[in-house]
User: Which sequence fits this backbone?
């Protein structure tokens, strides 16, 4: 068993080692995948990220110049009539919809692009809460008093000429420029109230367009106040071109009142489709500005200083994370100082903000361009500037969660891009890492586990077979040992069985020969005894010879029609002297008709019957009766049998021995204490003979109850 145990352990060890090989294969596969990402993968990813910049700008321009202006504005009409531009817009919109499946066209696009001024405000947006203007605190006391008088008259709704006069007084005191514009506005507004609405609106809108940057004393731009007044007057005459132009410039650089102004403008429209489209477009443009504002707040809150900064960062705003790329831009403009033309250059910061969903989509698309698929047990983890990203399938098999699993291989890249909206190459070179992770080791090892199971079972089965073989060999060895013991007992039993009768036959024959038995009747007794013993001897020898033939497979039976009843009766007669000698009565008892013919080997059946009668007589106490009988069982059914039985009143056989007594050499009790004669082959010969005739031998017996052996011969075997 030791070599089997050693081989089995070696087998199991080898199977377990196989797991390491699978792990190494996975590692190698991960290495191959990483190798398929080209050197300039950073450029591909950057390209995918900025791919929609142009589309978004195109869409905003379309809203600004093609939808929001007054319906018969020439620029609007030109745009809408230009088939090429319209096709471009349609394509842009399709691209945007594909990238932002949740985006509805009436909303601002979650992708923001703005310019931060050196003071940290967003360029062209005045959405901060209003602050009192600086001119209010720089005025002299007389100037301030004149201003207060003008304001009080305006507040009290004094007549326009009175207000005009007070404004003139204030202007003559040479107040700061913005204060003068404010006074001019108060006077204009008072004047306009007596004008017809259409004229008033033209005046007010024109004023608003000329003074976009001037703040009133409340901190709100005067242009907005002028527009509010124009809107109020528009209720008298409905929407006008002048009003719409002022609204357009307000939305282009909105302030905190812009949403309310738009709502008021919407009230003016009744069933005018181009104008309601225009208001919707302005609402989207305004929402975009509001998003710019929110994101500029978030960028400022991150602590990144404004101005000449080149960096990129993640910020949280409007319920999601945004990746912002900051890039300085020089903005130069011409102006005049004391009538000398000069050029002023300001350094602003351009900020591009991409929502996380767009970033992950860009990575997924960039990976798609490599045309490499990954096995289901791997996921690709991406990390952009320290922010782990959840890529969509088929790159991530962990659903909406970050991939969890061993990082097998990874590679670092940086984004670079020199075209489109990044004319100077993506300046901050955002760093990112792509990694292959083993997210489903169960799946990887599933095949190997199957192989492990099959081989494990094979090894276990082989070891079990070896064990069973070993036990079987041990049992057969023990059986052979017992058999050889029984055989040697048999030889001594046979010798013993032969020696005693031969000795007595010889003694009697010698006495007769020497004339020591003169009495004729005594001589007859002697001769009878000699004949009897010789018959017993030849029966014993016959049994031994038959046994040897059976063992060698040479025993043959000659079947012929035989009268079983006559055969049984004859046998009983034959055995009677022997029984009488033992002091046992032998009787034949048949419930059958006198003849009962079957096809059988008469000699063999007789031998079987003799063996059974011999046993019965041997085991019967003196004076008892042994009954031999013949009976037919259900003669007319196909399973009918002719039964020959031999019953005695001997000591009986325990039920657990019933099977064993038919084995060769088997004898009850120990060799030393056995009282009956015998060699242990009688019943095995009976069994062989009867089974060769297609029948059975049965025994019914229990200790103290006697024994009944029955030979069952099939009745229909003619
Ligand atoms: P043996 O030559 O010992 O009789 P058998 O094969 O004829 O060998 O019988 C096997 C054993 O069965 C006997 O040793 C005996 O113990 C038991 N046996 C057989 N017939 C009887 C019987 N009629 N009554 C009690 N025991 C019996």
Assistant:
């Amino acid at each position: 068993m030791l070599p089997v145990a050693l081989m089995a352990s070696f087998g199991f060890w080898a199977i377990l080692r196989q797991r390491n090989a699978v792990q190494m294969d996975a590692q190698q596969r991960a290495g191959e995948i990483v190798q398929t990402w080209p050197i300039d993968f950073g450029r591909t990813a950057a390209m995918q990220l900025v791919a929609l910049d142009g589309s978004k700008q195109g869409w905003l321009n379309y809203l600004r110049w093609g939808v929001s202006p007054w319906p018969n504005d020439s620029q609007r009409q030109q745009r809408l009539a230009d088939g090429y531009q319209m096709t471009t817009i349609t394509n842009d919109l399709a691209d945007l919809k594909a990238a932002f499946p949740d985006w509805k066209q009436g909303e601002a696009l979650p992708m923001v692009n703005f310019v931060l001024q050196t003071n940290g405000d967003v360029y062209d947006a005045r959405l901060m809460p209003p602050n009192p203007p600086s001119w209010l605190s720089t005025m002299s006391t007389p100037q301030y008093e004149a201003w207060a008088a003008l304001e009080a008259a305006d507040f009290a709704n004094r007549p326009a000429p009175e207000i005009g006069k007070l404004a003139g007084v204030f202007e003559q005191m040479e107040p700061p420029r913005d204060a003068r514009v404010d006074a001019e506005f108060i006077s204009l507004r008072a004047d306009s109230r007596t004008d017809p609405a259409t004229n008033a609106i033209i005046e007010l809108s024109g004023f608003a367009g000329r003074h976009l940057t001037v703040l009133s004393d409340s901190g709100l731009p005067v242009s907005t106040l002028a527009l509010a007044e124009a809107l109020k007057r528009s209720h008298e005459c409905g929407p006008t071109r002048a009003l719409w132009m002022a609204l357009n410039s307000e939305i282009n650089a909105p302030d905190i009142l812009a949403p309310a102004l738009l709502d008021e403008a919407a009230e003016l429209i009744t069933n005018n489709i181009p104008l309601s489209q225009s208001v919707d477009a302005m609402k989207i443009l305004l929402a975009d500005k509001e998003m710019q504002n929110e994101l500029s707040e978030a960028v400022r809150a991150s602590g990144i200083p404004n101005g000449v900064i080149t960096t990129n960062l993640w910020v949280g705003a409007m319920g999601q994370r945004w990746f912002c790329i900051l890039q300085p831009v020089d903005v130069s403009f011409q102006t005049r100082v004391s009538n000398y033309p000069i050029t002023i250059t300001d350094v602003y910061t351009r900020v591009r903000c991409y929502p996380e969903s767009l970033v992950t989509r860009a990575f997924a698309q960039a990976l798609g361009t490599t045309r490499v698929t990954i096995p289901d047990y791997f996921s690709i983890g991406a990390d952009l500037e320290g922010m782990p990203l959840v890529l969509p399938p088929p790159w991530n098999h962990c659903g909406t969660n970050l991939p969890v699993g061993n990082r097998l291989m990874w590679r670092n890249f940086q984004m670079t891009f020199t075209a489109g909206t990044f004319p100077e190459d993506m300046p901050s070179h955002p760093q990112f890492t792509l990694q292959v992770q083993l997210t489903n080791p169960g799946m990887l090892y599933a095949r190997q586990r199957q192989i492990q199971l099959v081989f494990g079972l094979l090894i276990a089965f082989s070891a079990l077979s070896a064990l069973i073989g070993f036990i079987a060999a041990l049992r057969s060895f023990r059986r052979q040992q017992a058999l050889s013991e029984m055989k040697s007992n048999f030889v001594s039993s046979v010798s013993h069985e032969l020696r005693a009768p031969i000795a007595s036959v010889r003694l009697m024959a010698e006495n007769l020969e020497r004339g020591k038995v003169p009495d004729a009747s005594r001589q007859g007794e002697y001769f009878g005894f000699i004949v009897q013993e010789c018959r017993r001897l030849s029966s014993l020898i016959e049994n031994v010879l038959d046994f040897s033939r059976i063992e060698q497979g040479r025993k043959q039976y000659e079947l012929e029609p035989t009268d079983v009843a006559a055969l049984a009766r004859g046998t009983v007669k034959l055995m009677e002297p022997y029984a009488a000698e033992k002091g046992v009565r032998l009787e034949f008892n048949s419930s059958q008709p006198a003849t009962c013919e079957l096809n059988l080997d008469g000699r063999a059946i007789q031998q079987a019957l003799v063996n059974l009668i011999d046993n019965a007589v041997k085991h019967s106490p003196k004076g008892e009766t042994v009954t031999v009988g013949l009976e037919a069982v259900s003669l007319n059914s196909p399973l009918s049998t002719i039964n020959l039985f031999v019953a005695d009143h001997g000591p009986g056989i325990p039920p657990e021995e019933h099977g064993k007594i038919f084995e060769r050499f088997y004898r009850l009790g120990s060799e030393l204490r056995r009282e009956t004669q015998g060699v242990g082959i009688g019943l095995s010969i009976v069994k062989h003979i009867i089974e060769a005739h297609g029948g059975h031998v049965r025994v019914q017996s229990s200790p103290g109850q006697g024994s009944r052996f029955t030979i069952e011969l099939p009745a229909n075997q003619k």
The mean pLDDT is 88. The first strand starts at residue 112 and ends at 116.
